[in-house]
Amino acid sequence: MSRTPSRIATAQPALVPIDAIKGRGTATAMPHRFEQREREQYDDGWGSLDQQAAEEHVPVATQVIEELAKKIVTSNQSPDISFDYSINPYRGCEHGCVYCFARPTHSYLNLSPGLDFETRIVAKINAAERLRETLASPRYEPRSLVLGTATDAYQPVERRLCITRRIVEVLAEAQHPFSVVTKSSGIERDLDLIAPLAAQGLVSVYLSVTTLDNDLARILEPRAAAPARRLRTIKALADAGVPVGVSVSPIIPFINEPELERILEAAAEAGAQSAFSIPVRLPWEVNPLFQDWLRQHFPDRADRVMARIRDMRGGKDNDARFGTRFTGEGVWAELLRARLRRAAAKLGLRTERRPVQLALFNRPRKPSAQGDLF
């Protein structure tokens, strides 16, 4: 029988301090909601618990699992999302952001949304080939597309695997419009492809900047680029003529929320032209992971943070309803929106999406079964 989400939150408390494994967002391989087996600690009298604790302090290397994807372009069915298609070259993300709403997706792979999500990365090695097949199909209609919605397309393993770069090459060949959301400076590597597309109005990039505080960033998103490095990436993109915006997401009350205006100001100074923000979301296993993190790093305000989150989520830890899950509701959610609008207007930042340029789409040639011989 499958475990329930409420049971997950209490069945296996954190055995190792969250910061025990350097450079990781969580140190626990917490169970997921589909797990069918119970696990509990047992002292056999031979020091097994001490040995287990010592082993859990050992740094965990990132493991890349290669996957041949059957499909790479996902259609959006949610009425409150502004794009039609998404591409995620990877499953899981090495950045280790403790708040990542995509962590529960590892449950479908029978992997932990905790440590596994950031150490066992599934790489869709045939993503570019699948994308070409999709775009070449007569049934395909070009629409708004976002690269990196449930994973960061430029996370550290991309430096070696270059899956995202090959995807961008196919999009460039087809002159297909797209946007990228990332918190990695690695996107600068692909400016040779992105800048010419930007000149045609085919691409926009959003850098996620959640804090300007290095100490907070180190525990909040341990393997992402440092805040100052992300600002330099905004500048590099803007200098290359790429429309670039800033995502101050997620906003966590009393943690990074006081920085909202300062982040927007720093991003605008670096060259950002637009901005948006989303309150923190705590779906499924993210909730116990995040609350463990709060108690570990901010015990003095953990209860206050969760109370404010519930104020914006109809009294619950999370609200998955369409229409409110990305905005929140109530007085505090509206106050955050008002602060964003006011600061953006003062800094000359747009808060609406750019129109998508579809007229230049050039359907690529469909690969032949035996490959191109000439």
Q: What is the element layout, followed by pairings?
A:
Blueprint: H1 5-11, H2 48-56, E1 63-67, E2 73-75, E3 85-87, E4 90-91, H3 115-119, E5 120-124, H4 127-136, E6 145-147, H5 158-161, H6 163-174, E7 178-182, H7 191-199, E8 203-208, H8 214-220, H9 227-239, E9 244-247, H10 260-270, E10 274-276, H11 286-297, H12 302-312, H13 331-347
Parallel strand pairs: 1-5, 3-6, 6-7, 7-8, 8-9, 9-10
Antiparallel strand pairs: 2-3, 4-5
Helix pairs in contact: 4-6, 10-13
Task: Write up this protein.
This protein has helices spanning 5-11, 48-56, 115-119, 127-136, 158-161, 163-174, 191-199, 214-220, 227-239, 260-270, 286-297, 302-312, 331-347; strands spanning 63-67, 73-75, 85-87, 90-91, 120-124, 145-147, 178-182, 203-208, 244-247, 274-276. With 374 residues, the chain is an alpha/beta fold. It has one domain (17-31, 60-347): pyruvate-formate lyase- activating enzyme, CATH 3.80.30.30. The strands form 2 sheets. The protein has a 7-stranded mixed beta sheet. Residues 1-16 have low confidence and may be disordered. This is PA0069 family radical SAM protein. Pfam families: Radical_SAM. Residues 79-316 form the Radical SAM core domain. Keywords: Iron, Iron-sulfur, Metal-binding.
